[in-house]
UniProtKB/TrEMBL annotation:
InterPro entries per UniProt: Bact_Lucif_Oxidored, Luciferase-like_dom, Luciferase-like_sf
Classification of source organism: Bacteria, Bacillati, Bacillota, Bacilli, Bacillales
Gene Ontology terms for molecular function: monooxygenase activity; oxidoreductase activity, acting on paired donors, with incorporation or reduction of molecular oxygen
Keywords: Monooxygenase, Oxidoreductase
GO cellular component: cytosol
Full protein name: Putative LLM family oxidoreductase
């Protein structure tokens, strides 16, 4: 039975669609199979009562998804209520007008469920691919987010910038079902990015992949302070936390089962960055302890970790990445089931209690 959300924390999942080999079988599934499984996962999340489903954007052969709105549009036709977001859109290297049109169309066919998490991405492949100069990294992002937010509010727009042709009385269509497409900015750890989100009045998404979660408290404080100084109502601003998650019957079993996939994921990420150092089992166990931000353990430990962060940040949304490092579909499905039936009901009850 679907558990509805009534003014409590939103819980969701997202996929970056990596195509890394399964570390146990050494087999790599095709991009076609990966996309088919992501669509199945989204349907399971919707049927299980989760609130949000996200898909990432990458432009390399070891990832299956380069166009989130296309995948999310397919998902919109087999789901009913779950919100559909990019996770993230690489905003520096996409035309904001085209981006708005794509997500406004998604909003129409999903009956008002489209959202965008905008960021700058973990890789730089999209810059040469689409003809952008990586030296313009910061300026491109600033200009593109400014333009997108204007497109989101105006049907007719005149605009001048540096990196794309000017707009003169341009008709911005189609218009979404929602008054505005919700926009969040993804932040990994810099105060400047948190301050930018606050100044713009967007949502803030914290990517917390490990370590002590209290490190991120100053970023949330800076975000809210900047938003207040810019005249934005704090009631309308939202904070989300994202992170890797794996749930099993016990904490030790979760460590045993997840270590091969988590280690495999980071090996491939770091190999692309020129530092293919494997994650040792001892390091992983330390990273999975109850005081850290890595969401690995029993359902009870996951609940405790999320609630500890809720006390720190007072955030409105948690989104888990649960399909990394070549993990087979069966294990992903088991994670969704535990998240939906054992974790979500408790979090909704506790966060509703705290917000009332």
């Amino acid at each position: 039975m679907r558990a509805e959300n009534h003014n409590s924390m939103e819980i969701g999942i997202y996929s970056l669609a990596d195509l890394y080999p399964d570390p146990l079988t050494k087999k790599t599934i095709s991009a076609k199979q990966r996309i088919e499984e992501i669509i199945k996962v989204a349907k399971m999340a919707d049927e299980g009562g989760l609130d949000v489903f996200g898909v990432g954007e990458h432009h390399r052969l070891d990832y299956a998804v380069s166009s989130p709105p296309v995948i999310l549009s397919a998902i919109s036709q087999i789901t009913k209520k779950i919100k559909l977001t990019s996770a993230t859109t690489v905003l520096s290297t996409v035309d904001p007008v085209r981006l708005f049109e794509d997500f406004a169309t998604l909003d129409l066919i999903s009956n008002g469920r489209a959202e965008i998490i905008a960021g700058r991405g973990a890789f730089l492949d999209s810059f040469p691919l689409f003809g952008y100069d990586v030296n313009d990294y910061e300026d491109l992002f600033e200009e593109h987010i400014e333009l997108f937010l204007k497109l989101n509010t105006k049907e007719l727009l005149t605009w001048n910038g540096r990196y794309r042709p000017s707009l003169k009385d341009a008709e911005i269509s189609p218009r979404p079902v929602q008054q505005k497409i919700p926009v969040w900015l993804g932040v990994s750890g810099t105060a400047k990015s948190a301050e930018r989100a606050g100044n713009l009045g967007t949502g803030l998404v914290l990517a917390i992949l490990g370590g002590d979660p209290s490190f991120y408290k100053p970023l949330v404080d800076r975000y809210r302070e900047s938003a207040s100084q810019a005249g934005h109502s704090l009631e309308n601003l939202k904070v989300a936390v994202t992170g890797h998650a794996y749930i099993s019957k016990t904490n030790q079993q979760a460590i045993e089962e997840f270590y091969p996939y988590h280690s495999n994921y980071w090996y491939h990420i770091n190999r692309h960055r020129g530092n293919p150092v494997p994650l040792t089992r001892a390091d992983f166990e330390r990273a999975s302890s109850k005081e850290t931000a890595l969401f690995v353990g029993s359902s009870q430990q996951i609940i405790e970790k999320i609630m500890r962060q809720y006390e720190l940040f007072g955030h409105q949304r948690f989104i888990a990445q649960i399909d990394i490092g070549g993990m087979p579909f069966k294990k992903v499905a088991e994670n969704i089931e535990r998240l939906a039936t054992e974790v979500v009901p408790v979090l909704r009850k506790e966060t509703k209690k705290n917000s009332s």
